[in-house]
Design a protein that fits this description.
396 residues; alpha+beta; 4-stranded mixed β-sheet
Length: 396
């Protein structure tokens, strides 16, 4: 038997309140993608009824705290719900308020974020929390323009926060919503080429009486029914209105952009040991990819350069020390959004020189017992795991 959504008791108490709606009469003329005004009330009603029965029970939907909703919205950028849930729960326990997040140091924040990837999200969340704490006494803004002005908050994120926390009529257009609307209208181009039109559609569809539930229902529809592959059209409340379904194009829409092959970089990485069993790590500069995280030093292998020569050269250029390059520890393949890398990791022995942070913010000699207190990127976590395995096999 289907269960009611946990956040819908008011809906049940008020009876069939989704049965009648009037058109929003929004001034969004000119949309060639969605001109049928008469179906809007039925689209809203059917989606909200579906959500009442099928909406997901997610931890951030049990709160109206804009801060906690904000955290969830940022974590859900580029990351699946099942991955986000444990991170979200730990995060709000460790940083329960905007002010507590603002007061934390960046290294603590990056460590709490470790494994979620796209670390600029965490840095922006921290900066934005400091702004809200300093300028608004920790109170999240309640206007779209003020929310968008904060670091890391775009129109969709702001719309999601304001509708979920304050029940404001602010539209959203994340990846799930783009896909739903592209299929609903049988969009004949990739969604990213039609964003102004898709925003108009999202605004027009939005139920001004129940924006919180409507936006969450729209996201759930894309996440659980109107999925990228094998959409479950027979379970969709919008099947009778869906132009892609009517024309048997639901598997071809949304259209995708042609993508060139990702650039591939070969990287030489050094695990530098001193005579006391410590290893050398460095902290990346705060800006750019993986900013503020710790890593094992190294760099790109130049054409016709061996891994060993690359490591010796990079360590001299980055740290101004000499090392002897030993055996290979591990080779790691890792893909980022715009390129992929092969990390060729070797044991190295410190020879001479005083390490200097020439290309980074900080360097440390650390033991394997304490290395886990530092935030590392995912690929470097694999290096640490390989080192721990190496120590177990060599000590036995």
């Amino acid at each position: 038997m289907q269960t009611q959504h946990p956040l819908m008791p008011k809906v049940r108490d008020q009876g069939n309140q989704y049965s009648q709606y009037s058109d929003l009469n929004r001034n969004t003329s000119g949309s060639s993608l969605f001109a049928d005004q008469t179906s809007l009330p039925e689209l809203r009603r059917s989606l909200l009824q579906w959500y009442q029965q099928q909406g997901r029970d997610l931890p951030w939907r049990t709160t109206r705290d804009p801060y906690k909703i904000w955290v969830s919205e940022v974590m859900l950028q580029q990351t699946q719900v099942k991955t986000v849930i444990p991170y979200y729960q730990r995060w709000v326990e460790q940083f329960p308020t905007i002010k507590s997040l603002a007061q934390a140091d960046q290294q603590t924040i990056l460590k709490a974020w470790q494994g979620l990837g796209y670390y600029a999200r965490a840095r922006n969340l921290h900066r934005a929390a400091q702004i809200v704490a300093d300028q608004r006494d920790g109170m999240f803004p309640q206007t779209l323009d003020e929310a968008i002005a904060l670091p890391g908050i775009g129109r969709t994120t702001a719309g999601g926060i304001l509708s979920a926390a304050f029940n404001q009529s602010t539209a959203i257009l994340d990846g799930n919503v783009k896909r739903v609307l592209a299929r609903l209208t049988a969009l004949s181009m990739p969604p990213n080429r039609a964003q102004p039109e898709l925003w108009k559609i999202s605004e027009r569809l939005l139920d001004v009486h129940h924006p919180r539930d409507f936006n969450q229902a729209l996201m759930d529809l894309g996440a659980t029914v109107c999925t990228p592959k094998s959409p479950q059209c027979t379970a969709c409340p919008w099947t009778v209105h869906c132009r892609a379904y009517a024309t048997h194009l639901q598997h071809q829409i949304p259209m995708t952009e042609s993508r060139s092959e990702l650039p591939h970089k070969q990287i030489g990485v050094a695990v530098i040991w001193d005579g006391d069993g410590l290893v050398l790590i460095d902290r990346r500069k705060p800006e750019g990819l993986l900013g503020g995280l710790w890593e094992f030093p190294g760099g790109k292998i130049e054409p016709n350069e061996s891994v060993e020569d690359c490591i010796r050269r990079e360590i001299k250029e980055e740290l101004d020390i000499e090392v002897s390059v030993g055996d290979r520890l591990i080779t790691i393949e890792h893909t980022y959004s715009h390129f992929r890398v092969t990390l060729n990791v070797h044991h190295c022995q410190y020879v001479s020189g005083e390490p200097q942070p020439l290309e980074c913010d900080e360097i440390k000699w650390v033991s394997m017992d304490e290395i886990h207190i530092y935030p590392f990127p995912k690929a470097n976590e694999k290096i640490i795991a390989a080192l721990e395995e190496y120590q177990r096999t060599t000590s036995s």
